[in-house]
Amino acid sequence: MTTPRFNQPLGGNDMPRFGGATTMMRLPTQDTAAGLDACFVGVPMDIGASNRSGTRHGPRAIRAESCMLRPYNMATGAGPFAKMQVADIGDVAINTFDLKKTADIITQAYHEILSHDCVPLTLGGDHTLTYPVLRAIRAKHGPVALIHIDAHADTNEHMFGEAIAHGTPFRRAFEDGLLINDKVFQIGLRGTGYAPGDFDWGREQGFSVIPAEECWHKSLTPLMADIRAQIGDAPVYLTYDIDSLDPAFAPGTGTVEMGGLTTIQALEIVRGCKGLNLVGCDLVEVSPQYDVSGCTALIGSNLLYEMLCVLPKTWA
Q: Where would I find the beta strands (DSSP E) of 190-274?
C-alpha cells in the first residue's frame, strides 16, 4: 500500500519566502473544496464594519505574511500536512455594495464547501461573516457550541437600524437557533459600553462571558480545560477576532481596545481546542493599512495555522 501524498506548503529552500504564489502558507490552490479535509478560504469584506474600513484587504495580507510559516508545529508536535489534504480555495466573491446579498452569497458558498465534508478555515474580513457561515454550518452539523474570542460581544440588536453588521452576528445566530446556548463562550470582552449591562445579554441567554480583566496576568490553559469539559463531543465553531489582542500586539484592526489578551494567551486558547469536534474556524478583523509592520496579519496567519493544527483529523 502506498502512502497518500498530501499537499505541502512550498518550502523556503525551494523558493525564497518573498517569492512564489501568495496563497495561505504558499499551499496549492483549487477551485472547490472537493477532496479536501480542510481548506483556507477568504471573505474579503468590510461593508459590515462600523468604524475603520480595511478588512476587505485582510485575507490578502494574511496570506502574504503566512509565507513565514513552516509545516510542523514545534511546540505541539502537530503535522497537519502529514494527515490531511489542505488547499487554499481562494475568496468568496462577495457583493461589495450590498451587505444583505453578501450574507446570502457567503452562506451559499459555505454550503458548497461543507458538501465536501471539508472543514473551512476562514480569513476575514469583518466579523459580519461569521453569521452567514454559521447558517451553513447549522445546515450541515446542527446547532453548534461556540468559542468566541473578541474585545466586543457582537450581540447588538441593530447597528444604524440594520440587523446584519459586524456588531450583531451572535444576536442573529441566537435568534436563528444556530447555537447550543449553554455551550457558548465569549473570551476577552472589555472596554467601554453604553450601559452597565452591555455584556449581560449573552449571560441571560446562557452564554459564559469571560471579560479580559479575568484573563489578566494568568495562563488560560485551565480555562480551556474547563471549556473542553463543558462542550464535550458537541460540534464546535471557533471564531477569533484579532481585536481580542491588546493593540500593542495587533494594532491593525478597526476597533481597538486597550487591556487585551497577549499572543501567548491566544496560543493557549487555540491550542486548548485540541480534542474538540471543531467543524469550522475563522480569524477576522485584520485591517492591514493600520498594520505598518505587518505584525497583525502575521499573528493572524499563525493563529489560523494553529487552528489547522487542532482539527480532529490532525490527531486521528
A: 208-211, 235-241
Closest CA to 232 of 144, 310, 314, 308: 144
Helix/strand number for the chain, H first, E second: 8, 8
Q: pLDDT (tens digit, 9 = 90+) per residue, 90-113? A: 999 999 999 999 999 999 999 999
Q: Each residue of 274-316: pLDDT tens digit? A: 999 999 999 999 999 999 899 999 999 999 999 999 999 999 8
Block residue for cell numbers 471543531: 278
Give the start-to-end residue ranges of the domains of the chain: 35-315
Identify whether the C-beta of residue 87 lies closer than 8 Å to the C-beta of residue 120. no
Which CATH number is 35-315 given? Answer: 3.40.800.10
Using CA atoms, how far apart are residues 301 and 157, in angstroms rounded to an integer? 31
| Cross-strand pairs, 56 | none
pTM of the shown model? 0.97
